[in-house]
Design goal:
alpha+beta, 32% strand, globular
């Protein structure tokens, strides 16, 4: 199996509601109570998941696994993401396995 080595440093985390439209990011933390965490997981918003913000507003429109879903701005404020940089996706090797 080939491994890819990169010296790229991880991008700082930002809140999902501040992610620019049409930018790919990976969820790094979800800071909600158990009920909201479960709701977000059911929608596909969980740690390690790659997503894209399609439209800002309330609700935000996200693209996850090729599907679009609406997420309230209030919940999006509690999700921290790492932005994918040109030439470097924020997905780490261990998450891709």
């Amino acid at each position: 199996m080939d491994t890819v080595t990169t010296n790229a440093k991880p991008a700082p985390l930002i809140r999902l509601d501040t992610l620019p439209p049409r930018v790919c990011a990976v969820v790094r933390s979800v800071e909600t109570d158990d009920e909201d965490t479960l709701r977000l997981k059911t929608l596909g918003v969980c740690v390690g998941r790659r997503l894209e913000l399609v439209r800002v507003g309330d609700p935000l429109i996200l693209k996850i696994f090729g599907s679009r879903l609406g997420l309230s701005a209030e919940l999006a404020q509690r999700v921290q993401v790492e932005v994918c940089q040109p030439g470097h996706c924020a997905m780490r090797e261990e998450e891709c396995a």
